[in-house]
Amino acid sequence: MVAPLSAWPWENLGVFKYLLYGPLAAKVMYSWIYEDSIKDLWCLHILVICALRGLIHQLWNSYSTTLFLTRNRRIKQEGVDFKQIDREWDWDNFLILHALLAYMACLIFPSLDDLPLWNPKGFITLLFLHVTVSEPLYYWAHRLTSAYDKFLSAAAGHATFLEHLILCVVIGIPMAGSIMMGYGSTSMVYGYVSAFDFLRCLGHSNVEVVPHEVFNKLPFLKYFLYTPTYHSLHHTEMGTNFCLFMPLFDALGNTLNRNSWHLHKKISSDSAKNGRVPDFVFLAHGVDLTSSMHAPFVFRSFASVPFSTRIFLLPLLPVAFLVMLIMWAWSKTFLISFYNLRGHLHQTWVVPRFGFQYFLPFAMEGINKRIEEAILRADRIGVKVISLAALNKNEALNGGGTLFVEKHPDLKVRVVHGNTLTAAVILNEIPKDVEEVFLTGATSKLGRAIALYLCRRRVRVLMLTLSTERFQKIQREAPADCQNYLVQVTKYQAAQNCKTWIVGKWITPRQQSWAPSGTHFHQFVVPPILAFRRDCTYGDLAAMRLPDDVEGLGSCEYTMERGVVHACHAGGVVHQLEGWTHHEVGAIDVDRIDIVWKAALKHGLRPVSSM
Q1: How distant, in Å, are the alpha carbons of 28, 32, 42, 199, 589 from that of 38?
Q2: Which tens digits make up the pLDDT trace of 268-303?
């Protein structure tokens, strides 16, 4: 069943819906360029107010998703998943509706251009009309249309076309009444609309920011100001708490949920306590300035799709650069996202460092300190497994996590680099009939494991390395009857007839040119190599899709598809689900590659085909 007037007239226009602001913008531009002054001043006001309202909603959304600030104040602990984000994708439709209706009002009442900037009587009149007309009108309209609430979400801006038509009337009556009485002013319009949206966002934020002590000292105030907890009960217990902002009308209408203030006090009081302890933590890091804006607390909808550089990010780069400097100087590891898997809480923490900083010799000690602090914190609060992302387990940095395990031998938390599953993913992407591969980064942890595994399968491995000593050391680890399958090469030309390249060290377009047509580039290098050759195919970084029963997942991990995580992340998940008690640090145990792969499949993790 579809609720009446639930669809928006411009819902199929996509980004072209913003062209509906065109007539307003055109009038302002024409008046500014060709006339002495902007005659249709309210066209400009409407555009500015829409931008201001959008900013209010965005700031509230950013605050509510800044988990390191709000995790202990969250009302509903479930995460916002991709389905809800998609439902709320066009949350700003109401701004277009209100802008068009406001423009029509300006055309009908040209005297609006004569409103003064300030009139204190207007604020008094507006408050009176809001309490006596808007609040009861919304209460009864909301109560009568409650049958359609199941079609609504928990976002302040997202609602049906019908509800926002009602809101237009609700928000318009106090302003229109004040203006018709001769008390209106421009500041009144700006102030009322901003306050209205602020309170709407407050109620839908899912974060309890109103201290319960306020109601203890001023008990009457709880009937005149709702709280996020109060409004959340309306969405969980549908027959209660219908009010706009004032619970007084629920009390008069006998629809006030009796648990409202008890639950509010409990959540507000518990905010000082530590929340639920995660079972698993993935310790990530920043990649670059642009991708740092892919965080859920920056733009939630943008974070819900795989990262790619967008034009709208470019003006924000100076801000990102400033934030990077601040984090470098003061920030500690922080929580950025979470999801639930079969009753287990999985979180992603971020070391406040970017990719380039890991290659600065003077920054390495500080980075290791941040990683160590995160591991010790996880150990202290009772985390079972912590997995290190790409550069956080760099061999030159900390020996793939060995540094921390040796320094703290009594750790209860299991430290995992996840490279065993990374190797398994890469190896299972290689067709079974392949007889020869070319391997760069051949003497790295992953390169060594891949080479040793493939030679056991009687696959000839061309290992690109200038170090004969390191090559021979790896070759001696192979079974005696397999050692001849490992071949040292020192130039890319040696692979000009090999169509399976495994790239563990970044290669330039010129180096790629030695690959024959039809080559497939598997890779475990960060960042990924450029897809330079049109006659070749390129694999993504090793990754796995999380099980279908994952809950509350609403952000993409860098360039990965929805529901897909890097293999090192997935390796930590498997470690936790299996209940393994060993650390996975240092060199990869080749004998465990198949064990970890089968365990991943057993728990419902699936490979992401890159062919």
Answers
A1: 6, 5, 9, 32, 73
A2: 998 878 789 999 999 999 999 999 999 999 999 999
